[in-house]
């Protein structure tokens, strides 16, 4: 976990992610990234002496019309002293039954993010923390380049249009392999939502492409990430002490 805390501390500092008085809603899906993010933010808050409130928020898409079982997540949140709020939705029905999306992940992600944004805005949170990691950033960059012909990626910090809340991604400097190791070591209650599209998405294909590029040309992932930090305006780091 020390590696993860190092990545978190560096990202929080370089991109000015947290301030005293912040109310932070952490999107917790149940996956390893969101749980490590939650665990890490609670610890890094104390290490860095930042006085902010942290709440875990889970969006339940109700895939196949069945509510997800977040009970273990709730128990973990109680253990670390964090409130856990579950928001039921009809996202699964809309994506798969009403819209019958052939590529459902993009719409599902937008709707879940929209639900998180609305919750955070309506309840006066100042920050919404999402668990995107370094690998996610590289894959998103490649997806945008290969499928849309544009250079871009989500930003470490994004200010919503009404400027009332910022979306922060404190794990953007953390490789997925380190997150996986930390989650296993901490024995976090990781689980996957029961989505029938899992493993058959453009994201998964891009993940496999990234792994192939890394195998054939070791270090390619970090070189792509380095180029993003140098050349994407929102990714240029704050070098002030």
In short, what is this structure?
This protein is an alpha/beta fold. It has 9 helices and 6 strands, in the order αβαβαβααβαββααα.
What does this structure look like?
50% of the residues lie in helices and 12% in strands. By secondary structure, the chain is of the alpha/beta class. The chain has one domain: HUPs (Rossmann fold, 3-Layer(aba) Sandwich), CATH 3.40.50. A six-stranded mixed β-sheet has the order 3-2-1-4-6-5, with helices on both faces. Helix 1 packs across helix 2, helix 2 packs across helix 7 (176-186) and helix 6 crosses helix 8 (202-216). The longest helix is centred in the middle third of the chain and has 19 residues, at 104-122.
Set out the fold topology.
Blueprint: H1 2-14, E1 23-27, H2 32-48, E2 53-60, H3 71-80, E3 83-88, H4 91-98, H5 104-122, E4 127-129, H6 134-148, E5 157-159, E6 166-168, H7 176-186, H8 202-216, H9 220-231
Parallel strand pairs: 1-2, 1-4, 2-3, 4-6
Antiparallel strand pairs: 5-6
